[in-house]
């Protein structure tokens, strides 16, 4: 973590996990880290390893990607955007060191340098119905469309969705921007508030608890723009393509509410009566819900979803209540 930003957050104390329904929140994204890929071969290097078309990524565009095992299991979910001399990759901080090491093994003679950029840029999320208005009031740019970014001094503002933005600034600049957002009306909140926004957007984050648990289609990754089926080979491509064109996806990701006193952990097993004590899926991401309990993204058998009764942690554990995603499932 980084100096001025770290000191600023220490002075803030513990930020609330739950906020009022409909609030626009400003959230320190301490759960995320950044890998920088720099050099003239950055695009082809990443293109050959990741699930999306890096070669066609526009200068002001951002896109979702995955890095997979040869068997198509996701090791990381990534948000990638271009810089003047390369790319930045945002991912879960708990898997960053291992992923950086693994990606570095592929560099060989490529003219590219990979590094942990988490100390060079700090991240904050802004989410809610007034995001564009409050960013502008704080003197920050508002990218015109989702998956676009705009320069902000020595950093960027990346628009992930209609109402979700990431502010990436040097650690000595982000505290002032965060305070300006709060002064404009954003409610400072803990990481659960950002996770809730991404859960409601149906955007999963692979963490250490769920590495290698899912192929792309289980996380709806082809539905949210995370996979190109026109590009060439990359690790796991054959499995992802075969699943898309020849196979039937037996598991999908759903949004759920869990009425529980304590948060279930990502990776927690799910159970359905027809399968007794055999797991039918896992939780992906979990966040405190404004009305109480927790909202989550859950990957499970589509047949169990159709049957309707699913429990977390044990066959008699808390029940899942299914909620809508903002996109249709096949």
The outline comes out as globular
**CATH class of the largest domain, anyone?**
Alpha Beta
* Widest sheet, order of strands: 8-9-10-7-1-11
Largest sheet: 6 strands, mixed
Name the average pLDDT. 96
**Amino-to-carboxy terminus distance:** 41 Å
Low-confidence spans: none
Give me the Rg, rounded.
19 Å
Order of helices and strands: HEEHEEEHEEHEEEHEHHEEEEHEE
Strand content: 25-35%
Strand pairing plus helix content: what structural class?
Answer: alpha+beta
Assign the CATH superfamily of the largest domain: Probable tRNA modification gtpase trme, domain 1
The helix tally amounts to: 8
Domain tally = 2
Q: Please name the CATH architecture of the largest domain.
A: 2-Layer Sandwich
The counted number of beta strands is: 17
Helix percent reads 10-25%
CATH topology of the largest domain: Gyrase A, domain 2
Organism: Pseudothauera nasutitermitis
Protein name: Folate-binding protein YgfZ
Pfam families: GCV_T (PF01571)
Domain GCVT N-terminal: 30-212
Summarize the structure.
The chain is of the alpha+beta class. Helix content is 21%, strand content 29%. The relative contact order is 0.16.
List the helices and strands and how they pair.
Elements: H1 3-12, E1 25-28, E2 32-38, H2 42-47, E3 62-68, E4 74-83, E5 86-92, H3 96-104, E6 113-116, E7 122-127, H4 131-137, E8 148-152, E9 155-159, E10 164-169, H5 174-184, E11 187-188, H6 191-200, H7 237-245, E12 251-258, E13 269-271, E14 281-288, E15 294-301, H8 302-307, E16 311-312, E17 320-323
Parallel strand pairs: 1-11
Antiparallel strand pairs: 1-7, 2-5, 2-6, 3-4, 4-5, 7-10, 8-9, 9-10, 12-15, 12-17, 13-14, 13-16, 14-15
């Amino acid at each position: 973590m980084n100096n001025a930003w770290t000191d600023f957050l220490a002075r803030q104390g513990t930020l609330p996990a739950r906020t009022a329904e409909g609030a626009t929140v400003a959230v320190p994204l301490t759960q995320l880290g950044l890998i920088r890929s720099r050099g003239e071969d950055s695009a082809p290097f990443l293109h050959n390893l990741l699930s999306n078309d890096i070669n066609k990524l526009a200068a002001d565009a951002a896109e979702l990607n995955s890095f997979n095992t040869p068997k198509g299991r996701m090791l990381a979910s990534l948000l990638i955007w271009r810089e003047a001399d390369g790319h930045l990759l945002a991912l879960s901080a708990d898997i960053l060191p291992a992923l950086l090491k693994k990606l570095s093994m592929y560099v060989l003679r490529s003219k590219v340098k990979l590094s942990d950029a988490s100390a060079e840029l700090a991240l904050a999320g802004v989410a809610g119905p007034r995001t564009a208005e409050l960013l502008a009031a704080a003197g920050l740019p508002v990218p015109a469309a989702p998956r676009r970014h705009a320069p902000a001094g020595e950093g960027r503002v990346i628009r992930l969705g209609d109402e979700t933005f990431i502010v990436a600034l040097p650690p000595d600049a982000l505290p002032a921007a965060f305070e300006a957002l709060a002064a404009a009306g954003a409610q400072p909140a803990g990481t659960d508030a950002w996770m809730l926004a991404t859960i409601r957007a149906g955007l999963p984050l692979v963490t250490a608890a769920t590495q290698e648990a899912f192929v792309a289609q289980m996380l709806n990754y082809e539905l949210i723009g995370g996979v190109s089926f026109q590009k060439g080979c990359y690790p796991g491509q054959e499995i992802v393509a075969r699943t898309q064109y020849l196979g039937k996806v037996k598991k999908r990701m759903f949004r759920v509410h869990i009425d529980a006193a304590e948060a279930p952990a990502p990776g927690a097993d799910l159970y359905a009566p027809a399968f007794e004590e055999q797991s039918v899926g896992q939780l992906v991401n979990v966040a405190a819900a404004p009305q109480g309990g927790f909202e989550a993204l859950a990957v499970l058998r589509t047949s169990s979803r159709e049957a309707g009764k699913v429990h977390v942690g044990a066959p008699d554990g808390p029940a899942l209540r299914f909620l809508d995603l903002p996109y249709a499932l096949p």
